[in-house]
Amino acid sequence: xxxxxxxxxxxxxxxxxxxxxxxxxxxxxxxxxxxxxxxxxxxxxxxxxxxxxxxxxxxxxxxxxxxxxxxxxxxxxxxxxxxxxxxxxxxxxxxxxxxxxxxxxxxxxxxxxxxxxxxxxxxxxxxxxxxxxxxxxxxxxxxxxxxxxxxxxxxxxxxxxxxxxxxxxxxxxxxxxxxxxxxxxxxxxxxxxxxxxxxxxxxxxxxxxxxxxxxxxxxxxxxxxxxxxxxxxxxxxxxxxxxxxxxxxxxxxxxxxxxxxxxxxxxxxxxxxxxxxxxxxxxxxxxxxxxxxxxxxxx
Length: 299
What we know:
0% helix, mainly beta, 24 strands, Immunoglobulin-like, 3 domains
């Protein structure tokens, strides 16, 4: 009748849950040689989170986190000095269905280089020590540190990862030093560092003998004198005979700076040499020789 509008009955009520919101604040939270950590902001509209990693040209789920208060994930078992990509999205359970929010911004990060192995003493002198280590293929180069003044101090940066040795000169004789090495990898303008090698602890050799001279002459003996060596515990004296150097004395007190070799032929020239020694544990360390020649008296 007239302009009256008539309506049908309402449909059944439809309840629909919206998707959770997008994840924000996704960032790198930490790194190691074999792991990366991703952090993000808590999403109050979510029941939990899905973390995916890009691998083999596909995004692969690597974690499902069922507590929306947990806003971090650490992915272990990664290769050193390698770039990985991650993304995170929230999920919400709606009955038997899972609803997903949009993905976070992508987190791209490189792992650290691996730990240095094979660090050993490669050589020593009175004023220097050499440290060797195994090549690290995940590194661009190496940082060498020495312990001094109660601190670890950088003493070398090696920019070629094929160079696996370093010689530190200018050291004191018969002195213990400690070294450690770590790899670095440049990630853009940021240097990433691996864990340190085991510590290489070593003692330098005693210093070279000085002042070696003939101190007395007889027809059957020669006396050899030398300056006291403060870096030594004692001295080794050798005489040249039979076309080789033969030890003729070991002096265990570094205050004793003289030795008399008797039983020699008269009017004959003899050669002597002296070196300092220092016991490092059960290992004898030797300094360089000081030499002298002398002739016994004719009568």
